[in-house]
């Protein structure tokens, strides 16, 4: 296998006009880790962000690294945006991943763990306990843990066991006189290897309450202390903790039989996440080198696949959610102010939403506005004898979803309920299949997604008979129909009865549920139909205006920017003189501020208490701005392999409000990072004379009267 010198790798990365998607993602996780390193946050809040970086990294290895190994293991060629082929790109990714992992560990061991005592928290091993506490832990092991553990031996008589994904596992080496494994060439004696998986349904920490503190004992330390119970009268050479991450990336074959073949294949593929190719092993500080050498050979791994926690470190920081959500500490998480009424709807004055919508569109901006008006509208519709039908798309749901209950009630009351339920929503597949089956059994018409594409659009249409007239109450949004995330993610959605929206949404549902081919939409841009072409047209219009000496400008707020065709169009618009401001929370493959390529493009990222999730597209349009909101990011998958929609904003008040949303994102100096042309980021630092502006606070106070006339492109 040919390798590329590290200097050549850096040269290729620098020469490319794009940033690697995966390297950009790692930069995003650094910004999340920054939140865990902020001294002005409470320890519990900082632990929350550390836990988020850990779950993010798990997904990165399962999906992104897993996808890369799909190329490597099957001998397929792949060139990344950075210009690197699969092997040098793998080396670069692992090099950067190790740097991030080391900073994660340093953040925990040097910055967070030393502060535990100030919060009445101790994380101790068994030997750090008092005598009576040790007895209590031993009783817990004997009564609860011990019956759940199963040693799985690998030797001449036993096949190699299936070790599960993202589970804490002990690799135990014992000395045996019978059939065994020769662990190394130097050591000719035979050893036996056994594995003990710690069940995920056991709490990670056993808690002991002292007078002024709570002691948390990691489950692995309890098992380690009592591991001889599982190996009676056998010499234990070593017992080492490790954790596997397996390839979780898979694709589904198209099928004409959605109800059987497609669902069966999906369920089968989900099982492979537990048994797929190993792409990473996390190990503790001290480990048996012969055991690790054996595991590497078993799974065809290299040294870079091994991530070693330092002394005092901990494998899997997601376990800290047990402490973060603990009744003793959860009050130390930041509290959001109570949600306020929408900008143009006074819910607290008991205005009838249906009557209001006949007069004007209503904007919901979460979490600053509650999702309750939408849910209450749906619940009311489920009981309303005048409501004829409800159609909606579902991608992710809350754990105890009022949305599903309302749809079940509507079906029970004899209404025509049609739901496109995307069962392929990553890591929510099993819950979505379960909930979709509930709806189907209740009499709803359920489409289990489409095998070739994911349904990511967020649309709802309630049809109501009102005298001789039928009125459609339509909701179009950027975020999921999820009550939980509506308090944590920033999203936008509009409620409307305008005929042009109702017509377009009805047509779009006909496309989804049948074989309709619409002639065109007045208010929607849709993917995979023509969204890319429509966005290109809007970008080129700004470029033409700039070339003619007119005013022009583009401001886009999205989660990810990766589609190279759109990026090239933005580069060309920049060359034409169009000022472009991009607010990209996560992945950004565009290089801003490169002379002769992107001089007029600035990119920022907002990372803070809320997850920025809304998508807003602004085009100056010679002083008559065109604004779109919706579900779509600028990614290849969004434009080619997803059902997506962007909706035109027609209401002047809402349009002005969303321009202010973009404005406050651009001037934020609390949660904002400026992107450099090399893909790195610098956090904005306000000067002593600057007003402190946090976008995550501004909209709790913004009223219609306070909306400003702003020049977005001067920022």
TrEMBL record:
InterPro entries: PP_kinase, PP_kinase_C_1, PP_kinase_middle, PP_kinase_middle_dom_sf, PPK_C_dom2, PPK_N_dom, PPK_N_dom_sf. Mg(2+) binds at residues 396, 426. It holds the Pfam family PP_kinase. The keyword Phosphoprotein applies. ATP binds at residues 56, 489, 585, 613. Its EC number is 2.7.4.1. Residues 133-323 form the Polyphosphate kinase middle domain. It catalyses: [phosphate](n) + ATP = [phosphate](n+1) + ADP. Keywords: ATP-binding, Kinase, Magnesium, Metal-binding, Nucleotide-binding, Phosphoprotein, Transferase. Residues 18-123 form the Polyphosphate kinase N-terminal domain. An intermediate of this reaction is the autophosphorylated ppk in which a phosphate is covalently linked to a histidine residue through a N-P bond. The keyword Transferase applies. Its cofactor is Mg(2+). GO terms for molecular function: polyphosphate kinase activity. The active site is at 456 (phosphohistidine intermediate). It comes from the Bacteria. Residues 353-516, 524-691 form the Polyphosphate kinase C-terminal domain. Catalyzes the reversible transfer of the terminal phosphate of ATP to form a long-chain polyphosphate (polyP). Belongs to the polyphosphate kinase 1 (PPK1) family. This is Polyphosphate kinase. It comes from Mangrovivirga halotolerans. The gene is ppk1.
């Amino acid at each position: 296998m040919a390798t590329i010198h590290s200097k050549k790798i850096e040269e290729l990365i620098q020469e490319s006009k794009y940033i690697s998607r995966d390297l950009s993602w790692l930069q995003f996780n650094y910004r999340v880790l920054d939140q865990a390193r902020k001294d002005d946050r409470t320890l519990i809040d900082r632990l929350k962000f550390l836990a988020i970086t850990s779950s993010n990294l798990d997904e990165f290895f399962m999906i992104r690294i897993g996808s890369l190994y799909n190329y490597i293991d099957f001998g397929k060629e792949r060139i990344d945006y950075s210009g690197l082929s699969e092997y040098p790109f793998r080396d670069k990714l692992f090099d950067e991943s190790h740097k991030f992992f080391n900073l994660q560990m340093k953040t925990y061991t040097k910055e967070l763990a030393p502060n535990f005592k100030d919060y009445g928290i101790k994380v101790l091993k068994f030997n750090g306990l008092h005598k009576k506490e040790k007895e209590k832990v031993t009783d817990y092991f004997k009564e609860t843990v011990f019956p759940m553990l199963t040693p799985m031996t690998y030797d001449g008589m036993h096949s190699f066991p299936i070790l599960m994904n993202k589970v804490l596992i002990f690799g135990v080496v014992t000395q045996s006189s019978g059939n065994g494994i020769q662990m190394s060439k130097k050591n000719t004696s035979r050893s036996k290897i056994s594995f003990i998986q710690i069940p995920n349904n056991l709490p990670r920490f056993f808690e002991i309450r002292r007078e002024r503190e709570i002691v948390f004992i990691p489950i692995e330390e309890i098992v380690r202390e009592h591991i001889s119970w599982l190996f009676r009268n056998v010499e234990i050479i070593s017992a080492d903790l490790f954790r596997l991450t397996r390839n979780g990336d898979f694709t589904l074959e198209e099928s004409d039989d959605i109800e059987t073949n497609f669902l069966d294949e999906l369920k089968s593929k989900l099982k492979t996440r537990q048994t797929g190719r190993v792409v990473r092993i996390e190990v503790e500080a001290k480990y048996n080198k012969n055991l690790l050498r054996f595991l590497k050979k078993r799974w065809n791994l290299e040294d870079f696949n091994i991530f070693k926690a330092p002394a005092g470190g901990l494998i899997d920081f997601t376990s800290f959610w047990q402490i973060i959500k603990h009744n003793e500490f959860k009050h130390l998480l930041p509290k959001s102010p109570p949600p306020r009424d929408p900008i143009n709807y006074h819910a607290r004055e008991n205005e009838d939403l249906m009557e209001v919508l006949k007069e004007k569109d209503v904007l919901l901006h979460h979490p600053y506005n509650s999702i309750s008006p939408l849910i209450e509208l749906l619940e009311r519709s489920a009981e309303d004898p005048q409501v004829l039908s409800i159609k909606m798309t579902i991608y992710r749901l809350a754990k105890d979803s009022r949305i599903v209950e309302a749809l079940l009630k509507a079906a029970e009351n004899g209404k025509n309920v049609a739901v496109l339920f995307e069962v392929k929503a990553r890591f929510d597949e099993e819950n979505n299949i379960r909930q979709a089956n509930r709806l189907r059994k209740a009499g709803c018409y359920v489409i289990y997604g489409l095998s070739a594409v994911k349904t990511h659009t967020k649309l709802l249409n309630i049809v109501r008979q009102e005298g001789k007239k039928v009125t459609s109450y339509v909701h179009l949004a950027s975020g999921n129909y999820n009550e939980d995330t509506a308090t944590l993610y920033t999203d936008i959605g509009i409620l409307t009865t305008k005929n042009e929206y109702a017509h377009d949404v009805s047509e779009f549902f006909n496309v989804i549920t049948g074989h309709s081919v619409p002639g065109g939409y007045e208010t929607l841009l849709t993917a995979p139909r023509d969204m890319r072409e429509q966005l290109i047209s809007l970008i080129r219009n700004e470029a033409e205006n700039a070339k003619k000496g007119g005013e022009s400008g583009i401001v886009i707020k999205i989660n990810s920017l990766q589609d190279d065709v759109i990026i090239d169009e933005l580069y060309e618009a920049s060359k034409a003189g169009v000022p472009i401001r991009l607010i990209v929370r996560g992945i950004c493959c565009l290089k801003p501020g490169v002379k002769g390529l992107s001089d007029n493009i600035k990119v920022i990222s907002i990372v803070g208490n809320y997850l920025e999730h809304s998508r807003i597209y602004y085009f100056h349009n010679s002083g008559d701005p065109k604004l779109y909101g919706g579900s779509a990011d600028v990614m290849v998958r969004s434009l080619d392999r997803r059902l997506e929609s962007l909706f035109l904003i027609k209401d002047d008040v809402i349009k002005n409000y969303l321009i202010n949303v973009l404005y406050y994102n651009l001037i934020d100096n609390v949660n904002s990072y400026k992107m450099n042309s090399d893909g790195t980021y610098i956090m904005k630092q306000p000067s002593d004379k600057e007003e402190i502006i946090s976008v995550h606070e501004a909209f709790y106070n913004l009223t219609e009267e306070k909306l400003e006339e702003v020049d977005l492109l001067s920022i």
